[in-house]
Amino acid sequence: MADTKYIFVTGGVSSSLGKGIIAASLAKLLQARGYKTTIQKLDPYINVDPGTLNPYEHGECFVTEDGAETDLDLGHYERFLNVNTSQKNNVTTGRIYQSVIEKERRGEFLGKTVQVVPHITNEIKERIQIFGKSGEFDIVITEIGGTVGDIESLPYIEAVRQLKWELGDENALVIHLTLVPFLAAAGELKTKPSQHSIKTLMESGIKADILVCRTEHDLGDEIRRKLALFCNVKQEAVIQSIDASTIYDVPNMMLEEGLDTVTLKKLGLPQDGEPDLQLWNGFLKRHKNPKHEVTIGLIGKYVELQDSYKSILEAFIHAGAANEVRVNVESIHSESITEETIQNKIKGLDGVLVAPGFGERGIEGKIEAVQYARENKLPFLGICLGMQMAVIEFARNVLQLDRANSTEMDADTPHPVISLMQEQKDITHMGGTMRLGAWECDIKEGSKAHAIYGTTRISERHRHRYEFNNEYAAQLEQAGMRTTGINPETGLVEIVELEDHPWFIGVQYHPEYKSTVATPHPLFIAFVKAAREYSLAKEK
Ligand code: GLN
């Protein structure tokens, strides 16, 4: 018998049904029952990783400690489980093929014809079983991206079929997520799309063990019975996933539906007592019963798509709960901000966050927002590009350095206050070549950052190419922009803050990636607190 148990999550009928949240919720319940659980996402696209994707395509790119640029679902996994993921937790078709082709070039296939089956499927199976082999986990949940029936998902589905056969039913199970739509005209929930999607899965030789049904209305006994009969699962294995007001409710909803108990029963694992969700429920209680309210402006250029800034939005939820404050995030398109519109746009805000980003579009609006926050003593947090914009704004408007800029936006600027380091200048490939993953940072004593973190050595995750140009450090310091966080290895500036401002901090790294339900991020907690104080002062 294999030691590690494998759970595969597939999706049918439609995309965006929330497979990632269901996988994370089940993992949370299993973890809360004492099982060491991890989650993996297999993505069917051909990009080697999502690092080269525009956020409009699949939303934010999540960065892990080891510097992997990954799917945003890994962010959910970390936020739910409070366990770090790594490159191994996200695999794309591009990466699978890259590795098989490299093996072929090395001659590892000994003259054989290299084919989707068995070579690509073997590579997929190996990537899935890597966690079992390490012995670190009792249960591995693998989410297959895309929808069953898609051409590009076929090798993954075939790999799942083979693994299920090899490992045996007691060691591997398949959860299929479908949509049960409500037809308003008929006043009925419809099971046919689910039947078809289960049938498609069967054509690939896979029988689902558990059916999770996304629905807007309660399924009721009759629909559950029908789904069980026609989709070939036990009735207790028909799990309803009704729309939730927050994703953080889903673990409790799945507990109520018995998703964890059916899973454990099918895998032959003991299920003593109830999962320990005390900490989780404490968070939920604070999240749902805020005593105050603040509004923070999120200035970015991908604001049309909520998923583009996923980790930032979630970090505000964690920090809001920690402060018992509801944080309303108002997305403001940086391109809509000009000298004329700024007053109107920023009116009513208790804090401004200038978001990460790439390229020139919308940066003048970001600079305008920084200036407003600086001059009006509005709490300000700049993340990555947002920090760079804070430096540029200060250089232009306080130091009077005409046309100061980042060389990313203006290669010929007379004052490159943000520029490329030598190592980056020689890079020609875009994929995976930024400064990525966890880097240490020394915090200066007596700084605001020091008070917030309560320590002088931190580690935070990065994802950028351009850096604060140390040639300007002395000038900026003298005028009141303090460099309070320094990378001990490279001397690069990671944190800037303003002396003469109640709360103005720019960070070159991404604190949002490390905020979880169990450990809300100190910078976000402090920022929300500062916004709360600002709003109180306004009321007076
Ligand atoms: N475009 C900037 C850089 O590459 C900032 C990147 C970011 O905000 N993640 O340095």
- The number of helices is 19
Sheet-strand content, in percent, reads 15-25%
Q: Structural class, from secondary structure content?
A: alpha/beta
Give the CA-based shape: globular
Tell me the quaternary state. single chain
Mean pLDDT: 94
Strand numbers in spatial order across the main sheet: 13-12-14-15-23-22-21-18-19
Query: Would you identify the regions where 5 or more consecutive residues have pLDDT less than 50?
Result: none
| Bound molecule types | glutamine
* Alpha-carbon Rg, integer: 25 Å
Helix content: 25-40%
Taking the sheet with the most strands, its summary is: 9 strands, mixed
DSSP E strands, number: 23
For the termini, the CA-CA separation is 68 Å
Structure characteristics:
540 residues; alpha/beta; nine-stranded mixed sheet; seven-stranded parallel sheet; globular; binds glutamine
Describe this structure in words.
With about 550 residues, this protein is of the alpha/beta class. The longest helix has 19 residues, at about 115-135. The model has no long low-confidence stretch (mean pLDDT about 95). Glutamine binds near residues 357 and 408.
